[in-house]
Write a structure and sequence with these properties.
mainly beta, Tachylectin-2, Chain A, 349 residues
Length: 349
């Protein structure tokens, strides 16, 4: 795995905010696709409020009219109901809010390295299931159509919704396909034995840990035949929880899946990237699983930031020579680039 020497390639200061009351704090977790001669990244742009002394300001969306509107809550830091849990969450009484709110924004490049970011959002929250924002797009091309699944965040937790487009100009909203709490959905790029297939990650509360599941669908909307594919704990690097990364890549030896693992080392959490290979005709069967991370936080931009010690992947572009361009995020703050080949990631026999 070769990290680009000019990382990070996209930073928050490159992106204009969507509202004058907000400031961009993260440009992260992009879906990625090649469209003609352009590389497109669909960034999660995380925005926070401009804070004033003695006040906690929290962004959220309201849906009291036909158009959603941004609402900013201004609360006193001395208010006993207000608890700042960490860099990402604020508790107000018995309701939890996020400290930043996200939308999806397109970035475009002719060389896969230097990106120009659109001035306006590509996709904003559309209903109450997205009152805390839309996050972490993944793009799957099936025939001539691009399906974009993303995480919808609200006070009812997080679910996964789906968009459809052929040109990234005209977009159709298809609704929520995995209800809360569920995220890290990765849709396979073709039908397998007559069904669409996806990886997903329900949240485990009580028994077990958050694991990667697999499901089937006749139409990409209605999903069933769920079964657990992989649980945390196989290695040190994925001991706490795991989740899908970029959409699976079809190879001669099987479906290549790059996923993320979370581990607790000392007192610090680490997110890294792992790899597994699924049977080409029955992706519910794992035929290879890596024992070491293919990418681990080591550079300063991966260990120091909004959320330290995080590398996370939603988007991979496969080039004509089977090289892979991994557009990953670091510290939930910036977007970076790494490159390898398929042969670098999976065994030869």
């Amino acid at each position: 795995m070769h990290k680009y020497h000019g990382n990070p390639i996209i930073t928050p200061d490159m992106i204009p905010p969507s509202d004058k009351r907000l400031m961009v704090k993260g440009a992260l977790n992009p879906g990625a696709v090649q469209l003609g001669k352009e590389t497109l990244l669909l960034l999660r742009v995380a925005e926070g409020c401009i804070q004033t002394p003695g006040t906690v300001s929290i962004p959220t969306y309201e849906f009291t009219s036909s158009q959603p509107s941004l609402r900013v809550l201004h609360l006193s830091r001395s208010d006993p109901r207000v608890q700042i849990k960490d860099s990402r969450a604020v508790l107000v009484g018995d309701k939890e809010y996020v400290s930043t709110i996200s939308h999806l924004r397109l970035a475009r490049s002719s060389n896969g390295i230097d990106f120009k970011i659109d001035a306006k959002p590509f996709w904003m929250p559309v209903n109450p299931s997205e009152e805390f924002g839309v996050e972490d797009a993944r793009i799957t091309k099936i025939d001539d159509t691009y399906f974009i699944n993303y995480t919808a965040v609200s006070g009812d937790s997080y679910g996964t919704s789906l968009l459809r487009t052929t040109d990234f100009k005209n977009v159709e909203y298809l609704g929520m396909i995995f209800s809360a709490p569920n995220k890290d959905v990765c849709i396979f790029p073709e039908k397998i034995s007559g069904s669409y297939v996806a990886l997903h990650r329900p949240f485990n509360h009580g028994f077990g840990k958050s694991s990667i599941w697999i499901a089937k669908s006749p139409d990409l909307i209605h999903w069933g035949q769920h079964q657990c594919l992989l649980r945390p704990g196989a290695t040190l690097w994925e001991s706490e929880k795991i989740g899908g990364g970029a959409p699976p890549i079809k190879t001669e030896r099987g479906w290549l899946v790059i996923y993320h693992g979370k581990s607790l080392q000392g007192r610090a959490d680490y997110y890294c990237l792992m790899v597994m290979l699924l049977d080409i005709n029955d992706p519910s069967k794992i035929i290879y699983q890596g024992e070491q991370p293919i990418l681990f936080p080591s550079a300063s931009y991966e260990t120091k930031g909004f959320v330290p010690n995080v590398v996370f992947l939603n988007g991979v572009v496969q080039t004509s020579d089977d090289s892979l361009l991994l557009y990953y995020s670091a510290c939930d703050e910036v977007t970076c680039l790494a490159q390898c080949t398929i042969d670098d990631l999976i065994p030869q026999s």
